[in-house]
Amino acid sequence: MNWNAVSFDWNQVRAFLATVEEGSLSAAARALNQTQPTLSRQVTALERDLGVTLFERGPRTMALTDTGIELLDHVRAMGEAAARLSLSASGQSQAIEGQVSITATDMTATYLLPSVLIQLREKAPNINVELIPSNDVRDLIKREADIAIRHLQPEQADLIAKRVGNSSAYLYASHSYLARVGHPTSVEDLSTLNFVGMSPIERFMPTVFESGLELKVEQFKVTTASGTALIELVRQGLGISILPRHTAKLFPELIPVLQDRISFPIPIWLVTHKELHTSQRIRVVYDLLKVSLANML
């Protein structure tokens, strides 16, 4: 390796990455527990050391230059490698032990988290995990769970939240259902078809309307409060429903419907309480979830 070719400091790279991911210098400074002038100097020093301009600076905005965009993938890879290094070093310590509870929707708990927990078993074998599948928002302030995976940013000041990625949901139906009713080719075709929804349906319908769909409550012939049951109902041909892409792709019999016209954004937030700064076992699990979920989406 040509060591002389590495002429920058990791703290500078971290400052650049945090500014991009958090959206501004001030937000990045808060995330890294630094002052904004310090962070700004680190970004400027990185530009100087690399001999490039990473941001176009305006009165209140910082936009990535073409060079910044080109380097971003490499910087993100460095950030993920640094997180894995920290996790590996921490997880191998036999002093890291005890129980950590994680709450997530039953879909996430069933279809995404098992592979993450296998990794955790390898990294930190003395950590025991209680997995709490729940479509209700657990109260981390009351310690109903240590870590939550949510689709909405929490508002409580005592919580630490990190947006680890974005996914999308689409309309899906089974081969068997579409064979019976025909494959919709327009939004208007949906008006005569059956749907499967999440209950209570009154809370589910605003999500439907926000996408521009003008469906009637009467079209939702079956509803359920269970995400895993929802998938099975769609697989068995009960109708069309909104399903996350990263879950629906696990089932080849599910076919997207009007995917180029109708989509639903799904932000993924990783949330914990301030004990993250003092509990090493929670930190280990949180860091692994952060890296793994970002790679899955």
CATH topology of the largest domain: D-Maltodextrin-Binding Protein, domain 2
Structural class: alpha/beta
Largest sheet: 7 strands, mixed
The CATH homology group name of the largest domain: Periplasmic binding protein-like II
The proportion of residues forming helix, as a percent range, comes to 40-55%
**Highest CATH level, the class of the largest domain:** Alpha Beta
Distance between the termini: 33 Å
Radius of gyration, taken over Cα atoms and rounded to an integer in Å: 22 Å
Oligomer: single chain
Low-pLDDT residue intervals, each spanning 5 or more residues: none
Shape: globular
Q: Tell me, rounded to a whole number, the average pLDDT.
A: 86
How large is the count of helical segments?
Answer: 11
Number of domains: 3
